[in-house]
Amino acid sequence: MRDPGTIAVDELQSFVASALAENGVQATDAAKVAGLMVEADIYGYETHGVFRLRQYLARLEGGGCNPKPDIKVAQETAATAVIDGDDGLGHLAMSAARDLAMEKAQAVGIGWVGVRRGNHAGPLALYVRPQAEARMLGIAAAVGSANHVPPYGGTDLLIGTNPIAFSAPTKGQDPFVFDMATTVAAMGKIKTMLQQGQPMPEGWMVGRDGKPLTDPARRSEGYLLPIGGPKGFGLSVAIGLLAGVLNGAAFGSNVVDFTKDTSSATNTGQFVVALNPAAFGIGDDFPEIAAQVFAEMRASQPLPGHDPVRLPGDGKTSAAETRRAIGLTLNPALRRDLNELAAHSGLIPPFPDDKTS
């Protein structure tokens, strides 16, 4: 008998697609976005997967997200392009940007595609892993969907978590996939801790008095901290210039908090890059060379008390295969939330027998 907290991948995807469709999203778009949202959970990015459904539905209901966008290329050269997301669900514009970047990389060696008038699109790993699976390298970055960080040494909230991701092919089942926020913790992790009633570790946020803040319910009273102090601040500004300003998208005080404001267009900026190793004279040797380097790193003697060395992406493929086979086990708070969203949308709850609901 299956755990009532576990749901088959196709069932969860069908529910998410139905919830989006009930809020005006076209069926084909709803299916695509639902597939990407569930894919995030399959690969272990729970804070940026189905957990975000409530936020997306709120923006659809509030009018800040266009349920029927006309996504198109606004500017293009042989190696570059800018996609206008028409304020639609961010996954649609970002998947279009990823696919176009890969097409350009196959043709001319590199594809760099920016996005303007986008929205939150889940984890960036969704938009770089396919490059590695196609024996290319991938890069993606985004301006965060709300400002939670002041400039280093300042107090005005002008910067988001501004994530960045990289991928590369290698021999074996796990490509190199590195996806991180430029803050010590992503806001999604803090929101899941609030949902589950857990405190934040010290060092993630500070209050306006500069002292550690550990209550996720008080997150609006403080500041997220950048990784590496001024270095993380500089990196997040660079991402803002490339993903925001370069694309004609929001950065700085123009960024709309997509959770608090559900009626305004966010003009979220992102970019996706694909690099074809063949264009750099390395032919088909990149995966083998990378595998040799990674093998040396994994063979490094661990420090006392440390686990063996791992590379970003290690174990993701087998874990994903297991989840596809046996289903996804969601935490009780998320199961309750999805059941509530189902009731609000007039749908059958995805966890009807769950006692936590």
Automatic annotation (TrEMBL):
Keywords carried by this UniProt record: Oxidoreductase
Entry's Gene Ontology molecular function annotations: oxidoreductase activity
Regions annotated as coiled coil: none
InterPro entries per the UniProt record, alphabetical: Mal/L-sulf/L-lact_DH-like_ah (IPR043144), Mal/L-sulf/L-lact_DH-like_NADP (IPR043143), Mal/L-sulfo/L-lacto_DH-like_sf (IPR036111), Malate/L-lactate_DH-like (IPR003767)
Gene3D superfamilies given in the database record: 1.10.1530.10, Hypothetical oxidoreductase yiak, domain 2
Pfam families: Ldh_2
Family statement: Belongs to the LDH2/MDH2 oxidoreductase family.
Identification of the protein by name: Ldh family oxidoreductase
Organism the protein comes from: Roseobacter ponti
Organism classification: Bacteria, Pseudomonadati, Pseudomonadota, Alphaproteobacteria, Rhodobacterales
